[in-house]
């Protein structure tokens, strides 16, 4: 009888660990299915939109400010300082209109970030790669086969409780953020 108790306990522990470690894959799949079907209600439940917007605003502000400061033409422009001061306001409005359930759905369907939008028809050949960053952070990178290097967005999820996850960050690749000419 003692052996059966230990075997049962080991099975429960194994099941708990399997569900605990597998839960982000399930959450990512549910997120992807909601995006592909353009289910706004499910996407609203899967994404912490204020956190995503804040992180994207910070990424874009830093990148655009760095691009302006590294541009020789902008350094000699007397209005460059005014432009740098206006960046957060402009980016804030753009991000607020872009980071919506519809915007997330379009990015998942296309498998890339495109300047100026593009059509939101689903690309059947989109590749998804999954990776733990920490035990409480999980990343899903979405890449279309025809996407150029540096166009694949990464969706970062954070653990909320034992088994639930929410998307908290959208990482835009350097190739999109960097507007400098080589």
Structure description:
Helix 1 (2-36) packs across helix 6, helix 2 (40-46) packs across helix 6 (101-110) and helix 3 packs antiparallel against helix 5. This protein has helices at 2-36, 40-46, 49-70, 72-75, 80-98, 101-110, 174-177; strands spanning 127-134, 137-143, 154-160, 164-171. The radius of gyration is 20 Å and the shape is elongated. Strands 1-2-3-4 form a four-stranded antiparallel β-sheet. By secondary structure, the protein is of the alpha+beta class. The model has no long low-confidence stretch (mean pLDDT 83). Strand 3 (154-160) and strand 4 (164-171) form a beta hairpin. It has one domain.
- Helical fraction: 55-70%
Poorly predicted regions: none
| SS content category | alpha+beta
For the sheet with most strands, the description reads:
4 strands, antiparallel
H-E order: HHHHHHEEEEH
**Quantity of strands, as a count:** 4
Task: Record keyword descriptors for this entry.
182 residues; alpha+beta; 4-stranded antiparallel sheet; 7 helices; 4 strands; 16% strand
Topology:
Elements: H1 2-36, H2 40-46, H3 49-70, H4 72-75, H5 80-98, H6 101-110, E1 127-134, E2 137-143, E3 154-160, E4 164-171, H7 174-177
Antiparallel strand pairs: 1-2, 2-3, 3-4
Care to give the gist of this entry?
β3 (154-160) and β4 (164-171) form a beta hairpin.
